[in-house]
Amino acid sequence: MFSSRLDASSEINRITRRWRELRAAGSPILDLTEANPTRAGIQYPTGEIARLLSDPRSLTYEPQPAGLPEAREGVATYYADRGEPVDPARVLLTASTSEGYAYLFKLLANPGDEVLVPRPSYPLFEFLAELESVQVVQYPLVYDGAWKIDFDALRDAITPRTRAIVVVNPNNPTGSFLKQEEHEELVRICRDRGLAIVSDEVFSDYARHDDPRRVRTLSSTSEVLTFSLSGLSKVAGLPQIKLGWMVINGPVALRREAIERLEFIADTYLSVSTPVQWAAAGLLAFRSGIQSQIETRVRRNLAVLYKAFGPESPNRVLNVEGGWYAIVQVPRVRSEEEWVLALLDNHGVLVQPGFFFDFETEAFLIVSLLTPEDVFADGIGRWATLNER
Fold first, then answer.
1. Taking Cα atoms as reference points, which of 300, 298, 301 lies closest to residue 290?
2. CA distance linking residue 37 with residue 49, whole number of Å
3. Which residues of the chain register pLDDT less than 50?
């Protein structure tokens, strides 16, 4: 009776099941996976947010498929502040980056067509693609002290049904940014094969250090059809105020046709609320106060992690360029699932296994650097004692 696009009957994994059991029993748990800034002790200008969202203009419904001009100009100003000029006419608003992906899969792919996505990465693409009857094909990122695209494997993954290559810049959870030479090779491949680039840039404001080789955004990439996605969720730490966007670029005629078709898709749903559109420019204007708190939190927690797992530790912290996550490579004396369950049962510490993010090999554990500092320090300290046993 139901569509086969998504299998909703999957069993709960052992880690989630055990976490729920412990929580139901009242056992205290130090959650080192917390990545929601609204639950991580970040301070917000609540009065200003409320004022922006109560703009009287929000009471008038003025549906515009690409979004209100004032909101799109606010997004363009955000890019201009970063030294990346964007014409508001190339901006299309969505309720979230997830919705942006859904629009793009509708735009670019027929049922059964393929999109290439990185591995490891955030475990969302398969669900979004399946809901659009599109197939996901993974291409690997490899680590040799820094993460990089395996271009030989990427080329081998391209088939006649491939329609787009997704990059996550910086990647989640690896935190790795696309480098200039990778960008050039990616553009070359897509130009030669007639493919689009979808660049997820939600974490691009959160870089650990400067690097002249780094590509912060593909919003100015004009050689091939390119879509740069971001939103308030990460840029302003406001996941509850649903607003995302995409910046469209590429050869002029192709870009114009893409915008026209995307506006048709968006007009079918008109999902972005009027209040958030009128508030958008103001919400983006005070992002620096939110971002500075997040950056301080991430920097301090990362220092705790490096101190706990230094050169003498059997654990190795992988290089972190950006984002909110850190990856710890642990000895393969246990499986990732066994590591997570041991930390949970013996120390009341919750981390995530690498297989949640489609790591190809074991053993890797993932922590959120957005975790409140006292919780993070306590949890990492307990984890360090597990290695001593």
1. 298
2. 15
3. 389
Asked if residue 240 and residue 121 are part of one domain, the reply reads yes
Q: Is 181 exposed, middle or buried (0-12, 13-18, 19+ CB in 10 A)?
A: exposed
Overall domain count for the chain: 2
**165 and 148 inside one domain:** yes
Q: Is 283 helix (H, G, I), strand (E, B) or coil?
A: helix
Q: Render pLDDT for 7-22 as a digit per residue (tens, 0 to 9).
A: 766 678 999 999 999 9
Phi, psi of 11 (to 5 degrees): -75, 150
* Phi, then psi, of 222 in degrees rounded to 5: -115, -5
**Which sign, positive or negative, has the C-alpha torsion 324, 84, 166, 281?**
positive
How many Cα atoms within 13 Å fall on the side-chain side of residue 199?
27
Q: What pLDDT is recorded for position 143?
A: 96
Contact 55, 279 (CB under 8 A): yes
Any alpha helices (H) in 194-286, and if so which ranges? 232-235, 252-269, 274-285
Distances 382 to 29, 157, 354, 385 between C-alpha atoms, Å: 12, 42, 20, 5
pLDDT at 8: 63
315 in the same domain as 232: no
pLDDT digits (tens, 9 = 90+) for 308-341: 999 999 999 999 999 999 999 999 999 999 999 9
Look at residue 176 in the predicted model and tell me its pLDDT: 97
What is the reported pTM? 0.95
Query: What distance in Å separates the CA atoms of residue 228 and residue 198, rounded to the nearest whole number?
Result: 6
d(CA 325, CA 317): 11
Q: pLDDT digit string (tens) for 88-119?
A: 999 999 999 999 999 999 999 999 999 999 99
Which structural domain, as residue segments, surrounds residue 165? Answer: 46-285
From the list 374, 382, 366, the residue with the least C-alpha distance to 323 is 366
Give residue 10's pLDDT. Answer: 67
Residue 1 falls within a domain, yes or no? no
Residue 352, burial from CB neighbour count under 10 angstroms (0-12, 13-18, 19+): buried
